[in-house]
Amino acid sequence: MRRRVANFLILAFAAIPAIARAQEPVSAVSDTLRLGVLEAAAINRDPRGRQVDLLAAQSALRLRGLRSEWLPRLNLGAQAQYQSAVASIPAELAGGTSPAPPHKDTYDAYLGVRQPLIDPTLGARRGVATAELAESQARVRTNLYALRQAVADAYFTALLLDAQRAELQAGITDLDAQLRVARERVAGGDALPSAAATLEAELLRRRQSLAGLASDRRAAHTPLAVPDLAADVAAARTALDGLTGRPEYAQFARTRDALDRQREVIARRDWPRVSAVGRAGVGRPGLNPLSREFTGYWLAGLQVEWSPWDWGQARRERASLAIQQEIVASEETAFTEELRRGAVRGLADIDRLAEALGTDDTIIALRDRVLGETRLRFGEGVVTSAEYVDRETDLLSARLARAAHRVELAQARARFLTLVGLEVR
Fold first, then answer.
1. Does residue 380 carry a pLDDT above 90?
2. What pLDDT does residue 221 have?
3. What is the structure's pLDDT at 198?
4. Which three-class secondary structure state does DSSP give residue 73?
5. The whole model's pTM is what?
6. Which DSSP category does 106 fall into?
7. If we measure between CA atoms, which residue out of 163, 150, 160, 164 comes closest to residue 38?
8. Are 55 and 133 in contact (CB under 8 A)?
9. Closest CA to 409 of 281, 218, 230
């Protein structure tokens, strides 16, 4: 418990600047820390939060790469070769001469350009990149959401310590007053010294307990507000089946979108692609295979690429994506059922603690009445200090139980709202 409280204190004081910025009107009138603000500050300060922006930057680079595919592609090439035979004309010209055959060594240096005109997959691949970015960012938000419960656990641990300290301090004040009465009676000879000693020993024990609580809660100067969440829980109870605020649901939806975009890429992969192509260079021979000189040349045209058969590869990939869709659906269903079971348990805890608080009030009223009578009888010297301490301890125990139940009820409500994906204010 001490380690959890220490972690909470570190978080609280580290988050104070963020809290001040988020709640400027509140900070001007109160230094009270609130659970919802602390949870938001913890998420904002977590280093993993940078992953959202980093993923966006990474996706932007990927999209720039896809856009660059529309730009012309240039390539330089050169070739030198020697061939065993060349083209020749098997005829004699006038005068009995024959044309000289081309050289058997040939050379070619060229610049080629290719400009895509139609690429059916490019838009779909951009859609995949965008969908995968949204899925990755949703996964980061899901991981960060777990911080809310960790902060809430530490927050309510500190609240419980505060409540215990307050009740112990009230009990100490009462016993201190009765100790003065006992000492006056001892000094007047109306009581034995043991009467005052019993009260003093109990006071020392309680101050020791108070010091132990203070060491566990070193941020006593930073008050914590008990969140009033009864209305939020009542509203959530009536709309439980329609609550989908957990970030996991956004992650499931983004995963389905990414799978749909991948399916679209597969569907368009066997569509024809059209590009404009051109080439310019110098060679021996050029475009005239009978030339014996280095000559320049150029050519331009359209290129169509089409692979109508892939031996079932696209069909298999679509089947794999369909299976992945079913996996995502089953995970979402299991997650929903787990949340529903947790919500039912949470509501049962809330109802039990609310009922326990009502019983606590009755018990405290009865214990207080008994202590009041005992106090009068103690002042008259009818009951001993030990009996008074017993009755006062009974009342303190009842008050500590009520304080614990009050904090536990607030914690159960906060846990329920966090479970179903609602913000705790």
1. no
2. 58
3. 86
4. strand
5. 0.78
6. E
7. 150
8. yes
9. 230
Burial degree of 45 (CB within 10 A; 0-12, 13-18, 19+) = middle
Residue whose entry in the numeric block shows the structure tokens 């050379």 = 107
Q: Closest Cα partner for 83 from 99, 106, 101?
A: 106
CA distances from 347 to 55, 336, 381, 404 (A): 38, 16, 50, 18
Q: For residues 91, 96, 97 and 101, what is the CA-based torsion angle, rounded to 10 degrees?
A: 30
List the domains of the chain with CATH numbers: 2-70+120-271+312-419 (1.20.1600.10), 72-87+102-118+272-305 (2.20.200)
State whether residue 77 is helix, strand or coil: strand
Amino acid at 265: V
- Looking at the DSSP bridge assignments, the partners of residue 276 are 115, 302
- Write out pLDDT tens, residues 300-328: 999 999 988 888 899 999 999 999 999 99
Q: Which amino acid is at 309?
A: W
φ, ψ of residue 364 in degrees (nearest 5): -65, -40
- Closest by CA position to 251, among listed 125, 129, 143, 343: 143
The string of pLDDT tens digits covering residues 59-88 is 999 999 999 989 999 999 999 999 888 877
Residue whose C-alpha is closest to residue 277's, from 72, 127, 107, 84 = 72
